[in-house]
Amino acid sequence: MPFTIRDKPGAARSVAYLMLAAAPANFVTCVVLPDSRPLGWVVTTVVVCMFLVVGGLMCLRRPEKVPHGWWLIAPFFATTLITTLNQLSNDASTGAQLFYLWPVLYSANFLSRRLMGVTLATISAAHASVAFRVLDTAHALSDWFSLTVAFGLTMVVVFSLRRRNDTLREVLETQALADPLTGVANRRCFDGEITRAVAWAHRTEGSLALLTVDIDYFKKINDTWGHAVGDQALQQVAAALRAVARGPDDVVARLGGDEFVMLLRTDRMEARRAADDVRTALDESSGLPGGTPGLSIGIALLPDHAGTAEELITASDTALYEAKAGGRGRTAVAHPPAPRQNVDRVPSSVEA
Predict the structure, then answer these.
(1) Which of 129, 206, 219, 220 has its CA 20 to 30 A from that of 2?
(2) Which residues are identified as catalytic?
């Protein structure tokens, strides 16, 4: 997306450091060093420096209060500021040009490729406005071309490193949040997903179903056919769960051993149907030596059986144990929690 910011906290710190550093640099360049210091010029410089300090502190301390558009125009603001100082000081030297590195690096790190191109074009035009005014045409043309090419190559290199870093981070995040054997989410990922799902249910008054799935006699599968077949059974169950949980917000996770969960944003009837569909999908895919493994499934719903993520997990676990106690290979639905008795309405006979 052309108008999004990658790593907004990093962008905020980068802009904050720029503004806080630019304030004293601007004051020294415009007030301390010049021989002539008209009062109006001094007042204007002080106002600009105060703006830079306040803006820098705002970006550093309260970045959430800063409008989104500011992070997009920051490199153009910096380019304008640098060019203005170079124009006022008639400075087209290499040292003055190096200050353009900040908008180059900022855009390459935090902005889209389209905005990177616009930033480079802006810097090139800004420097040309100084170079062709201060230097002779031949030197200005050579200086302008060299700077544009050098900064363009810098952008390409930094952007390439940024994409490589993003790819590596995505791989690490996937490894950290996925079960390596089955490819579904792991317990760490599930904990975060159920917390977000419960918040969604409370906010929208929607229904949330948690299905806890356990492979019946999984130890017997391992002991009889070996752990390789046991791993295949786990993978096939995970595949069946994924085939059923097709919603964009549905979650399938392996909590450990032979226990899986499926989190669906649906009601009781659809949750029961999902449990049946999992068994059907598993029957269609099974090619294991011992045949299709049996599944015990416990279902709990929010708000019917629980009000929090912890209560939902507990209710689903309890329903799973009930399915196992009933002979395994079954689906059990949690019972509504017992109503709390109001002690103020306890009959007098009970009190006595």
Answers:
(1) 129
(2) 258
